[in-house]
Design goal:
Layout lengths: L12 H13 L14 H14 L4 H12 L3 H6 L7 H8 L9 H12 L13 E4 L2 E7 L8 E4 L5 E8 L2 E3 L7 E2 L3 E3 L7 H20 L4 E5 L6 H9 L3 E5 L6 H12 L4 E9 L2 E14 L8 E11 L4 E9 L8 H9 L2 H13 L15 H22 L1 H9 L2 H14 L5 H11 L9
Parallel strand pairs: 1-8, 8-9
Antiparallel strand pairs: 1-5, 2-4, 3-4, 4-7, 5-6, 9-13, 10-11, 11-12, 12-13
Length: 443
């Protein structure tokens, strides 16, 4: 089943998304040889429904609704024919690797591309900006599995954890991020954060770089990514980079910059702007072709820096970036603006997933094989589907224009706990009518 959308806003977007997801999870491997009462699709969609509704008790509520009213929203909204218990769901999904759902991310990008929705994300030299960052989504001193990273502390205690690199398409000034395929940090990556995250990022580049290259991609990342092996891996895939570049970890580069500055060979640009009642001065410095590290084999990069000073002399921002994009007075501000957008992977993706109802760090189930990573992937898909509904679902758009995220999902949880709706459209129509909003045009 092909992905259902191109550019059309429609009232039945949710139904098509769920049908598409079912077509994917129906192909989950099933290792059972005995009781097959519950399908793999029902187990996967059940887990997804918990993340989508941002309600850890959603399935429990639907079991009660089925008893009380003879119907339930798990069936009418998500097509879950039989609701397995939490333990049954965990046992069914534990053997399923997260790679089984990764094709959904690629299909979404293709659909957004064909519908011209990605044009709003174009930045420096027409590239899409892909911000990358690692985040931990599980930690325990007791619960663990063979996929856990292990940290042995000096006091003899051991911490078991799971982390993931979460690439997202971002754009300066655009509040929506588009999650791409995650890359899970596994024990073979080592135990130091730098080794783990960079190794996982290299795997992601090796697996997906060729696919995304034709789109024109600039990788964004913090100083952790600004190391020659990773920069070379990015370039080998035909991708570009803008990476935070700190003095403490790039002493040779900054020695070159200081030497060039002494002979007035570092270019400068100052832009004064008014914001509210204050005046700010953005002071840029930039230079092309300086070595990223010491040694004859050092990669030559282009470097730029921004210092923002308020009219009372207070420095309100300072950062620097290394990039392979050639820097000039005409584009230095755009390059810095793009580099600064890397914060969106933390603020509008990872932090949103942890603190805005998705509860990414909550242990929904650990398992002994792949459960933790698979559930995290389904959680990311729920976040991605919410973004798609903002683009494609006319009723969802109308409600989210009126209701903040928290209020919308509070209402969604309450309504689906006590009432059974025939369809997603019926649920949206009920909310729109109750709020006395004008119904969207569905013609």
């Amino acid at each position: 089943m092909s992905f259902p959308f191109r550019a059309k806003v429609r009232p039945d977007a949710f139904n098509h998304l769920v049908k598409y997801l079912r077509s994917v999870v129906e192909r989950f491997p099933d290792e059972r040889t005995g009781d097959t009462t519950y399908s793999m699709a029902d187990a996967a969609l059940g887990a997804f429904s918990v993340f989508f509704t941002q309600s850890p008790s959603f399935l429990d509520f639907q079991r009660h609704l089925q008893v009380a009213k003879g119907c339930n929203n798990a069936l009418t909204l998500f097509g879950i024919e039989q609701i397995p218990s939490d333990n049954q769901t965990r046992n069914l999904l534990d053997p399923v690797p997260p790679s089984t759902v990764l094709p959904v991310f690629a299909a979404v990008v293709e659909a957004l591309l064909l519908g011209d929705h990605l044009e709003a994300y174009r930045s420096i030299n027409g590239d899409l900006l892909v911000a990358m960052d690692g985040t931990q989504y599980f930690s325990s001193t007791k619960i663990h599995c063979p996929q856990c990273s292990v940290t042995e502390h000096s006091n003899g205690t051991i911490t078991y954890s799971h982390s993931v690199v979460t690439p997202v398409i971002v754009a300066p000034g655009n509040p929506r991020v588009i999650p791409l395929e995650p890359e899970f940090i596994t024990p073979q990556d080592g135990h130091e954060k730098q080794d783990c995250e960079n190794a996982a990022t290299k795997r992601w580049l090796g697996q997906f770089g060729e696919r995304y290259r034709p789109l024109g991609i600039t990788i964004l990342g913090d100083d952790l990514y600004c190391k020659q092996p990773l920069c070379e891996a990015i370039r080998q895939q035909g991708l570009n980079f803008i990476l935070v570049c700190k003095p403490d970890s790039h002493k040779t580069l900054y020695e070159w910059v200081a030497g060039l500055a002494a002979t007035d060979d570092v270019s400068t640009l100052s832009i004064e702007r008014r914001q509210g009642k204050r005046t700010y001065t953005d002071s840029y410095r930039f230079v092309n072709q300086v070595p990223l590290r010491d040694g004859d084999d050092a990669l030559a990069v282009n470097w730029c820096e921004l210092t923002t000073t308020r009219d009372d002399g207070k420095v309100t921002y300072h950062n620097a970036f290394a990039t392979n994009h050639a820097i000039s007075a005409a584009n230095v501000a755009e390059i810095v603006r793009a580099g600064r957008a890397r914060w969106k992977v933390e603020n509008e993706n990872n932090n949103t997933l942890k603190t805005k109802g998705y509860n990414l760090s909550h242990n929904f189930g650990h398992g002994k094989q792949h459960l933790s990573a698979l559930l995290a992937s389904l959680n990311l898909l729920a976040f991605l589907f919410h973004t798609l509904l903002e683009l494609f679902d006319s009723s969802y758009q109308r409600l989210r224009q009126f209701l903040p995220r928290k209020v919308f999902f509070d209402d969604l949880r309450a309504l689906t706990r006590y009432l059974c709706f025939d369809s997603w459209e019926a649920l949206m129509a009920f909310m729109i009518k109750g709020l006395e909003l004008e119904a969207p045009d569905t013609s």
